[in-house]
Amino acid sequence: MTSLPARIMRAGRYALAAGAAMLFTSVVAQAQVAPPPGPTVDAIKKRGMLNCGIDTGVPGFAFQDNKGVWHGIDIDYCRAVAAAVLGDPDKVKYTGTTAAARFTVLQSGEIDMLVRDSTLTFTRSTVLGLEEVAVNFYAGQGFLVRKSIGVTKAAELQGATICMVTGATLELNIADFARSTGAKIGSLLFEKPEEAIAAMEAGRCDGYTDDTGSLAGMRSTLKKPDDWFVMPELISKEPLGIHTRSGDPRWQKILFWLDNALKSAEEFGVTQANADQMKASKDPFILRLLGVEGETGKALGLEEAWAFRAIKTVGNYGEMYERHFGPKALNLPRGQNNLYTKGGLHYPLPIR
Amino acid sequence: MTTRQKALTWQAVVAVATAAILLFFARNVSDNLAIRGLSFGFDFLWRKAGFDIPFHLVEWDVNFPYGRALWVSGVNTLFAAAISIVVSSALGLTLALMRLSGNLLAAGTARTLVEIIRNTPQLLQIVFIYFAVLQALPQLRQSYNLGAGLFLNVRGLYVPAASGTAWDWITGLTLIGVALAAVLWRRVGVLLPRLLVLPPILIIGLVIAGFTATWDPPALKGFNFAGGVRIPPEVLAIVLGVSIYTSAFIAENVRAAILGIHKGQTEAARSLGLSAGRTMALVILPQALRILIPPLTSQYLNIIKSTTLGAAIAYPEILQIMARTVLNQSGRAIEVMTIVLGVFLAVNLITSLAMNHWNRKMALQGR
């Protein structure tokens, strides 16, 4: 019979060995840049479903109708990616994320991509370990205020209280604005836009602040939209777009070029309706875009019809904008969101 | 091998295995952080915050660091918790006494209230109270003028602010004096009921102090009232929401504690000629306290945790400021969550300790 201390020591050694074995298996060596289409697409194909992170509810970007179907330009991006990668735009699992939780959800791997009217910024790229893939909406921070308070400029909001969502660039911009102009604006922070809007309508705040696109969207949900107006002045630049986790450059490239394809389609007049006929076009650029020539799909690790399928699903960028922000929807002029050829900022890189 | 040796061996195995698992998780976290190019550390607490905290009891400025935001929001959490503990205890005791009063109307009302309150979700109640409060109050320019410089509107209750050296000293001394008297009352052997003597002294002290103070009454300027002190509706909603909900549970605890006292105690007190009220106050409640303290401790700990629901109604407590704003601005998810958990653990352990101390003091000697 061995002594007690020896037994304890031996038991301890076994446990340590087990622990060390667990540790060893957990240390997975990071692979070199994987061949196309990369680990994220492999995972998506294996589960047959794209996990897309979206907003919890802002008309224009992501909003559920009374049948529970999601609509919005961010939703269209998710559908376009699913069409390009999986060949079926309905194979998307939408995850509604609050402003505060969205990046953690992306970092933890719960979603493959985040298209949630989120501003692409320095901090998010460097400190949060994310990739800024593409801009799908150029916005700026503006104010929705009660008409009766008679304010026309942001500087006149001195002393006013503004409702907003927490965990975004909004509160920082307000504080920056106060520091640069001396106009102190009180802020009241809510988890979700609808809570902030409800408090504003009850009179707790003088207004609501958000990005331009979202402001138009939230105004449409008000009980009396005509009592409120969106101030023309903007206090910040908010390029909204697609975020991914760092670590899979292949996935990043697919999303980047898909965004370019949707904008190029508008540039070259390819629409959801005429995409089939355009396959017979004489323009080699259009033929490359639609996958008739050029083997663009092979380079990305997708099928050649990747961009064609996306365009057939959601149309070109202009059609998407028209559907969600056009005169029949939120009636927000295209402005900066036009193509560069029409005085806007969207400048698709050439697919060649 | 004796039983004792076996037990020791197993304990050692469990301890080492637990340590190994913890190490595994820690290693996993650090590996994954490294893969994503993230770092771990608390140095961000010294970085400039750059956001505003709308309601703060201690000084706050957008140029202060995140660490100060932790302090400011922590104070807000403790403030809401402290008031809620006092209010819910008073409400709970009232509801329990109503229920036991034997008066059909009072007992029925208390019973209905308790059942409604404890059978609906707390978050729902808080959001309901917040929006009900907001909807009920008038807009800024139609404020209720309550007289004496008090204004009530959708932005909150505006109270004139008092200042001055004499004011500070007299209010301070009165509060400390009354608190000391309340604690030492029985020990010194005063037989007058303290509830009849102390509140008037408190009021007289505050009134005298009020005469010596300089008052800064609120006045409507631009978008808002300038001057005075504002109690925002968020504070009201979170305190009411948490207090009302918990009071239902406290009421049941109090009722159970009172019913747990043998009937003979009441009968004996009444035979000695004590009135029903004095029987309750001098014989039943002091004994019931022994049974009451342990469940009451749980309720107080719940209150402290429930204040985090304030995040839903824009009350800037520690969860909203740290786990929402700071987490998002700094990107330090693990660190921030660790801090918030640590703060709650510390506060609740201290509360537990105090309540256990009280419990030991109240317990029957020799039991």
How is the topology of this model organized?
The complex is a heterodimer of chains A (352) and B (367).
Chain A: H1 4-26, H2 39-47, E1 50-55, E2 63-64, E3 70-71, H3 73-86, E4 92-97, H4 102-107, E5 113-119, H5 122-126, E6 130-139, E7 141-146, E8 161-165, H6 170-181, E9 186-190, H7 193-201, E10 207-211, H8 212-219, E11 228-230, E12 238-245, H9 249-267, H10 275-278, H11 284-289, H12 296-300, H13 306-314, H14 317-325
Parallel strand pairs in A: 1-4, 1-5, 8-9, 8-10
Antiparallel strand pairs in A: 2-3, 5-12, 6-12, 7-10, 7-11
Helix pairs in contact in A: 3-13, 9-13
Chain B: H1 3-35, H2 66-100, H3 104-118, H4 122-136, E1 144-147, E2 150-153, E3 156-159, E4 161-163, H5 165-188, H6 194-212, E5 214-216, E6 219-221, E7 224-226, E8 229-231, H7 233-259, H8 263-271, H9 276-306, H10 318-330, H11 333-362
Antiparallel strand pairs in B: 1-2, 2-3, 3-8, 4-5, 6-7
Helix pairs in contact in B: 2-3, 2-7, 2-9, 2-10, 3-7, 4-7, 5-6, 7-9, 8-9, 9-11, 10-11
Can you offer a commentary on this structure?
The complex is a heterodimer of chains A (352) and B (367). Chain A is α/β, with parallel strands linked by helices. Chain A contains 14 helices and 12 strands. Chain A has 2 domains: 39-139 and 239-332, 3-Layer(aba) Sandwich (D-Maltodextrin-Binding Protein, domain 2), CATH 3.40.190; 141-236, Periplasmic binding protein-like II (D-Maltodextrin-Binding Protein, domain 2), CATH 3.40.190. In chain A, 39% of the residues lie in helices and 18% in strands. In chain A, the strands form 3 sheets. Chain A has a 5-stranded mixed beta sheet with strand order 4-1-5-12-6. In chain A, helix 3 runs antiparallel to helix 13 (306-314). Chain B has 367 residues and is of the alpha+beta class. Helices cover 68% and strands 7% of the residues of chain B. Chain B has 11 helices and 8 strands. The longest helix of chain B has 35 residues, at 66-100. The mean pLDDT of chain B is 87. The interface between A and B is large, with 62 and 55 residues.
